[in-house]
Amino acid sequence: MPEVNVTEHLLLNQKKMPVARGQFTHLLNQLILSFKIISREVTKAGLVDVLGFTGEVNVQGEEVKKLDEYANNVLIHRMSRAGVICAMSSEENEGIIDIPEGFPRGDYVLIFDPLDGSSNIEANINIGTIFSVYRRLSASDQPTSIEDVLQPGVEQVAAGYCLYGSSTMMVLTTGSGVHGFTLDPSVGEFLLSHPDIKIPERGGIYSINEGYTTYWDGATREVVEFFKDPEGNGSGAPYSSRYIGSLVADFHRTLLYGGIFLYPADMRDPKKPKGKLRLMSEANPLSFVVEQAWGLATDGVNRILDIAPTDLHQRVPLVIGSPYEVEKVRDIYRKHG
Ligand code: AHG
Ligand code: MN
Ligand code: MN
Ligand code: MN
C-alpha cells in the first residue's frame, strides 16, 4: 500500500473538515513535529540527562519529572508560535498559557497533558502525550477568555494521543472516525498504519488499580467483583486484569483489544474525591476518541463529553471502553444510586 501520511489522510478522508483547513492542518503538523522531538528525547532517556526529578511540584501537587518539563516546554514553545492558536492549557501549568506578544493568534484552543504516565519513565514503560483541540468561542479580534478554554468535551474538533513505546504511534480523531499513524524513523513521517479503528463491542480485560480497594465505595467494589465472576459477567470466564499505570497505554490497549479501563472516585485523598484523572487534558480527549471508535466513556453514569467544566484542572472519575462493559458498570452504579 503506498504510504499515506497524516495530512494526505486528512484531505482524502475527512468528511467534516474543520473550518479554515489550512490553519488546522498547520496546527496538526506543528503538533506532529512536537511529538517527533519529544519521541527523540524519550528514546534517548537513560543516555542523556532527562531521567529523574526537577525538584519542582506542579499545580497537580505532583513532583515534576525532567521529561514532563521537557515535553511541556517543547509543546508550549512550538505551538504558541504556530500562529493558529489563541490559548493553551497544559496539565503542568496552573493558568491559561498565552500566546507571546508579536506572534499571530489563530482560531484554535489547545489543551494537553505533555507527558502522561511519568511515573513509568525510569522503567522504560510506555508513556505518551494527550491532546485536545477546540475552536475559540470569542471573535477572532477579541482577547481570549477562560470560556474559550472551558468548553464541554462534545465541542472538541480534534483529539488524540502520541504513544512513545516500541514504536511511536499517534492516534487521532477529527470527528470522522479514529485513525492510527506510526512514525517511520527512516522517512521521519507518521504513516497510516491503523485506519478506521473500532473498539470491540465487548472485551475480556478490565483495567483498574486494585491497590485502592480499601478506598472504593460499594458500587466500585461490586463492579470489580462483576468482572472477576465467570458466571456473573456472562462470559463463563473471569476477565483478565491488566494495569500499566500509564493512562495512555492502558487506554490504547483497551481501544485495540476491547474491555474497560476505570479510574474511579476514591476516598484516599479528601482533596481529590473525584479520583486522579483530569477532565480537560485526559478524560475529554480520550472520550472523544473512544466514542468515535464506537465505544463509551462515563464518570460511572454520565457521559464524559457532556460535563460542563468549571475548572481547568478539575478531576473526574473515568470509566471508558467497550459499550458492553461500560453499560454494565453504569447499571451497577445506577443500582447503588
Ligand atoms: P500523569 O503522568 O500525566 O500525571 O498521569 C498519570 C496518571 C495516568 O497516566 C495513570 O492512569 C494514573 O496516573 C495512574 O495512577 P495510579 O498510580 O494512582 O494508579
Ligand atoms: Mn503528572
Ligand atoms: Mn496524565
Ligand atoms: Mn502528565
From TrEMBL:
Belongs to the FBPase class 1 family. Mg(2+) 2 binds at residues 113, 116, 282. Residues 6-195 form the Fructose-1-6-bisphosphatase class I N-terminal domain. Its main location: cytoplasm. One of its GO terms (biological process) is sucrose biosynthetic process. This is Fructose-1,6-bisphosphatase class 1. GO terms for cellular component: cytosol. Keywords: Carbohydrate metabolism, Cytoplasm, Hydrolase, Magnesium, Metal-binding. It is found in: Cytoplasm. Residues 199-333 form the Fructose-1-6-bisphosphatase class 1 C-terminal domain. Gene3D superfamilies: 3.40.190.80, Fructose-1,6-Bisphosphatase, subunit A, domain 1. The lineage of its organism: Bacteria, Pseudomonadati, Thermodesulfobacteriota, Desulfovibrionia, Desulfovibrionales. It is an enzyme of class 3 (hydrolase). Signal peptide: none annotated. The keyword Cytoplasm applies. Substrate binds at residues 116-119, 209, 243, 276. It catalyses: beta-D-fructose 1,6-bisphosphate + H2O = beta-D-fructose 6-phosphate + phosphate. Pathway: Carbohydrate biosynthesis. The keyword 4Fe-4S does not apply. GO terms for molecular function: fructose 1,6-bisphosphate 1-phosphatase activity; magnesium ion binding. Binds 2 magnesium ions per subunit. Homotetramer.
